[in-house]
């Protein structure tokens, strides 16, 4: 029983005793000795009052317990709301960071495109000269298992990235190095001195780290390094572009389509570097 109920009962008992004493004095005959006898009918109202006070005290106790239960439930709901708010803030911070990374990657890709366009006119200090006979040289390039096609004024040699790199990385496989040696030999034999772009592409799936533009730039740069270091290509003859998931060759809805989109394309330009 709570302190408030105990106080109410105590006050009621004191009141009842005081009332009983007054009634006893009223029943005593003046001038005679007090007999100590009280009219029997006076006990019943006092007992009824005590019972009524007890019921009120019990009701107050029940109300008090209900209030404590409701307070505990409210505290629990507040804790859940705080946890949900913290989670929402963390997700918002993550999305903001991803949006920033995407914007930075886009800016980097724009810079690379601008650099490529500038390099087509003048690459690495070498003056570029047009060679209009390039279209007639298409039949000279034949590499088993690779797609070689003409695209406007350029020739594209497509190499699956899965045959060159460990999945989702720019780490060349041993078999990938041998395949690049074959491509380099064909380029030297058929298009010696021509400007060659190395373009990296991937699918729209998530990469292990960074963005798709970063991954394709790293892969294209690894190919450039291989051609310079191992195949003695002049650096001024090569261009690098990371296209990310742009310009897919097939639908990304199937595994085969995604594999088709993960590729390195060698782009042979009509211009030569001198």
Commentary on this structure:
- The protein is α+β, with helices and mostly antiparallel strands.
- 53% of the residues lie in helices and 15% in strands.
- It has five helices and seven strands; from the N terminus they run ααββββαβαβαβ.
- Strands 1, 2, 3, 4, 5, 6 and 7 form a seven-stranded mixed β-sheet that branches.
- The longest helix is centred in the N-terminal third of the chain and has 79 residues.
CATH superfamily of the largest domain: OmpA-like domain
Q: Give me the strand/helix succession.
A: HHEEEEHEHEHE
Task: Name the quaternary structure.
Answer: single chain
Total helices: the number is 5
The top-level CATH class of the largest domain is Alpha Beta
Largest sheet: number of strands, sense, barrel closure: 7 strands, mixed
Q: So, CATH architecture of the largest domain?
A: 2-Layer Sandwich
* Integer average pLDDT: 78
The low-pLDDT segments are 23-37, 119-130, 132-139
Q: Kindly give the count of domains.
A: 2
Q: Could you please say which CATH topology of the largest domain applies here?
A: 60s Ribosomal Protein L30, Chain: A
């Amino acid at each position: 029983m709570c302190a408030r109920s105990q106080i109410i009962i105590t006050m009621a008992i004191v009141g009842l005793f005081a009332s009983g004493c007054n009634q006893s004095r009223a029943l005593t005959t003046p001038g005679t000795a007090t007999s100590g006898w009280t009219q029997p009918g006076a006990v019943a109202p006092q007992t009824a009052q005590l019972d009524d006070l007890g019921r009120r005290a019990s009701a107050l106790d029940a109300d008090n317990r209900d209030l404590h239960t409701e307070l505990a439930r409210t505290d629990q709901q507040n804790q859940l709301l705080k946890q949900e708010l913290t989670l929402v803030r963390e997700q918002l911070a993550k999305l903001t960071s991803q949006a920033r990374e995407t914007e930075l990657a886009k800016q980097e890709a724009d810079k690379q495109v601008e650099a490529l366009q500038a390099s087509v006119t003048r690459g690495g200090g070498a003056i570029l000269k047009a060679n209009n006979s390039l279209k007639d040289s298409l039949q000279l390039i034949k590499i088993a298992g690779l797609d070689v096609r003409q695209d406007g004024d350029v020739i594209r040699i497509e190499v699956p990235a899965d045959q060159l790199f460990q999945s989702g990385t720019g780490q060349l496989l041993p078999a990938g190095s041998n395949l690049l040696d074959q491509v380099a030999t064909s380029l030297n034999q058929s298009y010696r001195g021509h400007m060659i772009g190395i373009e990296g592409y991937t699918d729209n799936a998530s990469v292990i780290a960074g963005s798709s533009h970063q991954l394709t730039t790293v892969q294209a740069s690894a190919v450039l390094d291989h051609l310079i270091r191992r195949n003695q290509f002049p650096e001024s003859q090569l261009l690098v572009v990371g296209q990310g998931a742009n310009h897919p060759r097939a639908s990304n809805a199937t595994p085969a389509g995604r594999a088709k989109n993960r590729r390195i394309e060698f782009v042979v330009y009509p211009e030569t570097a001198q």
